[in-house]
């Protein structure tokens, strides 16, 4: 992206920098002068998630003159005659926000040793190259910039020109044109591309085609050759770093079903019948004009039809997923505390083709780095989250929490993963087995405290798969209905598994990006059902609240099923404010205050009193339906067994 003006005020530069940077995320690392020229190096955390290392060369003669060769590892810094927003943010930091003129100056440049290690130089390799269904050349690669970031450019080339591209740097993300990594990949693969897609045979015609794909600025290619050997990927390191894991025969591959795309409509889920009018009541989860989000609360004591209603809802969501207008399949994750959805109930499991997972060698890794947005020191964040979960469930003290955190970090390091060095994050990550081994090395066996008991229990029950190569991304695994059967396990194990899986789910949901939306219709991607959710909600784990709050954007909904209305609200948290759809069956030990926060009614009002008596008198498979701001409806449920009977008749 080339600047149209050489002269700009610092105010204008700051406005541009603000798009990516916040001045409280800018640090000056060094500031020195040589030969009358000042060199300032900095560190900038941009809003896109990367840490950049801008360097500006300054000489002051009335105005501030910035060297045209000032460098940064973002795409803007690669273009001639342009100061990137990170350099601008650094300038702003240097001069304390003063509104002074900044002029680009080509009369001076980086010192020789600085040129040698130019921040935006990088090496590139071709990962794969093939013809797509349209006959165009499709190339994917890996590029390593001098500051250590690994980028993954992908390009499609037709007639010697890039017609489509993607990369995880600014230029591609902001649709500003192919980034420097895409251009370098094109240069790297030019000869092979020409052999594949060109029908030209003459020497002159081939030379003409080569000029078409030739990079705009060949001097940058010369910079690549001048890189210090320490900055280059040598062949042995490169092949080891980028080696794809071998596919294990035991590793099941989960592929999402793809349905025919159609004009946007909504799934239509039959909830039941209005007892007053006899009309069927439908739920439209894709239609945002009817339902802003799909978070749902299902309440009822034992024997009221709560589970039958929930099974009917899940079954219809599964069977109606072809109506998801983008053709996207729906993933449904069920946490089954009582065994109501497992293979002991074959009518449900077989109807929805459920995959049943037991808490034994679960096929995902709580310490995986896959599926996360980049953030500095990511392994430390994951270690800290796992530690917080175990600390809360087992009520650990500060010393025990610290020991667990150190054990996880040590396990990462033994796998050659440095939390501060993103280049190492592609290495095979530790599993719980590795963390347990690291913990045993630190612990005094004579001190068998609550942490020792917790770690030993998790180790002996073999909750998590110990072979990292046999694990998969949780988010990618969720295609169709997946039941995690927690029945028969103690409460601490149940809560630990749910908390860890929801944390993984939330992080991978964020990385998956927003779901498709067209007009008033939003594509649904995932549903989570937490059955008997009262105990889990009482723990106040942050992940469930974050998914409830943010899931709508990603096409994700949560269904919380529990026996009492009051479970949704405590002194620390009010989950009810994130629920729009309520199905309330007969509830024992009901209070007027329970009705108040669900139905938005005054606890002393006539409506509240009427609802109170109605709920207390509800028969089995009868409920009160409340959707958003609509009036409550007396409903006869559509239970699961009725769906099955209708199919048999």
How would you describe what is shown here?
The protein is of the alpha/beta class and 649 residues long. It contains 21 helices and 25 strands. Strands 14-13-25-24-23-15-22-21-16-18-17 form an eleven-stranded mixed β-sheet. Strands 1, 2, 3, 4, 5, 6 and 7 form a seven-stranded mixed β-sheet that branches. Helix 16 runs parallel beside helix 18 (542-550). The protein starts with 6 loop residues before the first strand and ends with a helix.
Question: Gist?
Answer:
The chain has 649 residues and is an alpha/beta fold.
Question: What is the secondary structure topology, with strand pairs?
Answer:
Blueprint: E1 7-9, H1 10-18, E2 21-34, E3 37-46, E4 51-52, E5 55-61, E6 63-67, H2 85-94, E7 101-105, H3 112-116, E8 122-131, E9 137-145, E10 150-151, E11 154-158, E12 161-166, H4 170-173, H5 180-197, H6 203-213, H7 218-225, H8 235-241, E13 269-274, E14 280-283, E15 296-299, H9 306-319, E16 331-336, H10 346-351, E17 355-357, H11 378-394, H12 398-414, H13 432-442, H14 450-461, H15 474-477, E18 480-485, H16 491-512, E19 517-518, E20 521-522, E21 526-530, H17 534-538, H18 542-550, E22 556-562, E23 581-584, H19 592-599, H20 606-616, E24 622-627, E25 633-637, H21 640-648
Parallel strand pairs: 6-7, 15-22, 15-23, 16-18, 16-21, 17-18, 21-22
Antiparallel strand pairs: 1-7, 2-3, 3-4, 3-5, 5-6, 8-9, 9-10, 9-11, 11-12, 13-14, 13-25, 19-20, 23-24, 24-25
Helix pairs in contact: 1-2, 5-6, 11-12, 11-16, 12-13, 16-18, 19-20
